[in-house]
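Supplementary Methods S3. Input chains for the assembly prediction are listed below.
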Amino acid sequence: MTDMIDRLRLLRTESVGPITYRRLLARFATPAEALAALPELAAAGGRASPPRIPSRAEAEAELAGLHNLGARLIFLDQPGYPPFLEQLADAPPALAVLGDVALLSSRAVGIVGARNASANGMRLAESLATELAPGLAIVSGLARGIDAAAHHGALRSGRTIAAVAGGLDMPYPPEHARLQAQIAESGAVVAEAPLGTAPLARHFPKRNRVIAGLVLGLVVIEAAARSGSLLTARLAIEAGRELFAVPGSPLDPRAKGANDLIRQGAHLTETAADVLANLPDHPGRAGLNRDPLFQHGPAGFTEPPVLWDDGADRAEVAKARRLVPGLLGGDPVSVDEIARRCQLSTAAVTAVLLELELGGRVETLPGNRVALHLSP
Amino acid sequence: MTDMIDRLRLLRTESVGPITYRRLLARFATPAEALAALPELAAAGGRASPPRIPSRAEAEAELAGLHNLGARLIFLDQPGYPPFLEQLADAPPALAVLGDVALLSSRAVGIVGARNASANGMRLAESLATELAPGLAIVSGLARGIDAAAHHGALRSGRTIAAVAGGLDMPYPPEHARLQAQIAESGAVVAEAPLGTAPLARHFPKRNRVIAGLVLGLVVIEAAARSGSLLTARLAIEAGRELFAVPGSPLDPRAKGANDLIRQGAHLTETAADVLANLPDHPGRAGLNRDPLFQHGPAGFTEPPVLWDDGADRAEVAKARRLVPGLLGGDPVSVDEIARRCQLSTAAVTAVLLELELGGRVETLPGNRVALHLSP
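Predicted structure tokens for the full assembly:
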């Protein structure tokens, strides 16, 4: 229990993202030791004041709040943590779950698409979900349009999972509060954000990676160009999940995104049979990689992060502290590239990057890449 | 000129199809010799009365009729015969052409689809043709719906070719007589059937292979399952031409055929740019071959026919005459298979099959396959 409280304090500490969380746990014997080392690491990273670590009482209050709501917090590496989601390098360190935790380990398919979907698009999402739900958990994002239609369709014949962007106690959009309650009753609602978090724009990409991580395949219906659904599709591909897209007429602008995905290799999907015929039992490593959209080098959600290596030479670390900051910019760069340009060991560079991240100056991204943290 | 008259008499003889025509010309030094040998070959093939060979006067009358119409007859192997069409094993031995013969050797794209197309489908066909026609000849079949829309669109910005099922003097459907005349004025109208031929159901598959043979790529818009457009698509694939299909909503039954083609590997096509980006300079050998529709063994429009070999051993031919008929049925079987089962040379089997075909008992199909001719 102490361990869980400390884990929660660690993951709610500012500048500790999902990847850093994993690195700290890999480096230190216990979460308590990691917490104790944080101020020093952050100071080495150039931080004036130490990062705010939530108190034990605050962590206990969060757990109590979840308990009162009837929810549970499942930590990464704990039994019950969704096994396919765990494969993401930046998997949420903990998920708050309302409903049936076991459902999160089922074979699942995601259905996502436009909020301003057409009546036909919603009809398709709903009937696809109804046809697939008897054998598969249907995952979506509780949004208006396609998401809600998919949840409704799944509720009719089976079970569904909603991944929400804010806290479990802040259903969004507000008019879907009743839908969220229905989903929690027979299925599950999951949130990465703590209770009381109002969903902001920056929470949605994180929510999208949870959807991508939970599913074996993702169906995209009516996604506009540069929409959140296309980002979810990209995350799904990077995580080795199968991608399905429902085609539409070139005269319908809402069909553009899904048609593009098909052109790039997504399975053209008209019926549930198209999904079932192409759904694997496990995530693969296959990406589309045919389009510039997907050609941005090793993005590697499925790639394990380089673990922080305590054995770095002290002199090298000192040199890395001088050289590394100058090699960083707003565009993500790989840790290997930085090490090559410094002519230093990856261990030393990684050690310094962890300090810089805890110092609030660097952001660690999936695929072992880093960028300067551009604060407003 | 005599040679041309004899060629015409040979190809208009009953039981002489395009493949047999090529074999006879390969075996005999001149068309006249082939004509002279026909009765004997047909008798060996079990025919009671010799096949009806058109008279010299009849052939001359056909040429005069074409001349009066302002049309020309172009024979296979003559300069001006469309070079990509010539690659088909069963290329028409001659094409009647109204309009600009040179256009038939241009880079061309076919646009075909449903006769009962939607307004949107016709709009797409028309705009696609208008956008492509400045650089490419647009080929279609003069039918109602998508075909007519493609011709109209092409006429607006460039040139178009109509391949018709009947004779050049029998425009079909009748209300497209004016469209045919417009096409002939700036482009070309081609017919395999002699003048005076009313288009019957059996002429349309032949017309479809002419469309497939003329083009580097074929665009399918709104093709129903088992429609003529899908057959044209199959012929195009077999001939190594690129296949393009315009997607549509799964809720629109008219989109089924084109969506199926995309699933099988056709290029998803929304705009002219999608066609231009994937159009080769020459036909390839690449087929889709991912679907049962396309998995019927070597259909080989692009495969050269086995040429009739005069060097067959007489004793073997005599034996083949006894054995081959019993190995034939309504289902096509390959000549190699027959030879293997008789334990005779392919030359002997081929010689006997030619006799049987001229005797009206066997039909030769592309891909070096034969079947019993099932007459009504």
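Confidence is low (pLDDT under 50) at residues 286-309 of chain B. The radius of gyration of chain B is 21 Å.
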